[in-house]
Design a protein that fits this description.
About 45% of the residues lie in helices and about 15% in strands. It is α/β, with parallel strands linked by helices. The strands form 3 sheets. Strands 2-3-4-8-9-10-11-12 form an 8-stranded mixed barrel, surrounded by 6 helices. Strands 5-6-7 form a 3-stranded antiparallel β-sheet. Strands 1-13 form a two-stranded parallel ribbon. It has 13 helices and 13 strands. It has 2 domains: about 5-75, 2-Layer Sandwich (Enolase-like, domain 1), CATH 3.30.390.10; about 85-370, Alpha-Beta Barrel (TIM Barrel), CATH 3.20.20. The structure holds 2-phosphoglycolic acid (PGA) and zinc ion. The site of zinc ion has 5 residues, from loops.
Length: about 375
Amino acid sequence: MRDGEKRFLGFGVRKAIQNVENVIAPQLTRMDVRDQREIDQTMIELDGTKDKSNLGANAIVGVSLCVAKVAADSLELPLYRYIGSANANILPTPLLNLINGGKLAATELDFQEHIVMPVGAKSFFEAMRMGTEVYLELAKIMERDWGRHSLNTADEGGYTPIGMKDPREAFDAELEAIEELGYRDEFVLGIDAAATHFYNEKKKNYIFMEREMNREQMIDFYEDLCSAYPVKSIEDPLMEEDFEGFAELTRSLNIQIVGDDLFVTNVERLKKGIEEGAGNALLWKVNQVGTLTEALDTAEFAYRNGYGVQVSERSGQTEDTWLADMAVALNAGQIKTGAPCRGERISQYNRLFRIEEELGKSARYAGKNFRRPL
Ligand code: PGA
Ligand code: ZN
């Protein structure tokens, strides 16, 4: 919910804040902060709409996460323990988006994220050390092949190679950096295609690398890509309503296929996906659904149906570290929170280092088993 006024060019959030202070707060003041589900339910009923548009999903999600943090503090537990209990011990494999495209960057790349995953590391800290080295090595390649301006970073901290149009060029550059450091067997690649953004509604086709392509041509492209490159995870390979196409790709590629725009952390959409065999992992974004308990229900439903759960940032992430705690609380095995630069990304990684230290011997890094860490 944005104010839509002159202030902040329409992006102000005074209305949402007023809703927290004047509508939500009076209803919650006498409730026990540990009753997360009851509190979330109260807000859902108070709002009364399906998409939380009455009070604002931003108002509701903020309170929901705040309640969880206060409850954890009052019980003197770290947030990952309060939500995940005694069994939370898996440190996630990070999906590091090192080259940005699509809506996240002023580049000509159609895919939104060209990701490296340090699956061969022994710990989360080592994974981030290796990932950071690749990021630094990649800077040299970017500058050499794509010019100095390519070092400007985009929304999630990835580079923005000038003139690069083909995702294979992005992966070539990333693999060169990986190999230069001797990490060939330690890394796999990932993609968030965010294909809805290059799907043309009028033409009912994709406009990809300046060509019009139909579903089958896109599927062929992914199949070729996966036989030429060690790609092990693809998010939103097709537009967000194409459950059938997702199912076809999930059957033909033996890798992780993640639904973000496809599922939007919504149980009903996930259920449809499970019935049709569309994808095999859920992208988990709490603010897509609006309360913590609804998001936890969706994650639980995913697990019970053999789907993986990838805990995810937003491109408009803040420096608040609740997300890092949730990745461990859910034993999700994977977190996507951008390149190892920009403060709001580093905040999440630093928080995960602290959790890994705190867990000590019981900490386990998901590594290669990111989709099914248990
Ligand atoms: P968004 O990007 O936060 O802008 O949606 C992240 C993603 O698509 O996964
Ligand atoms: Zn996405």
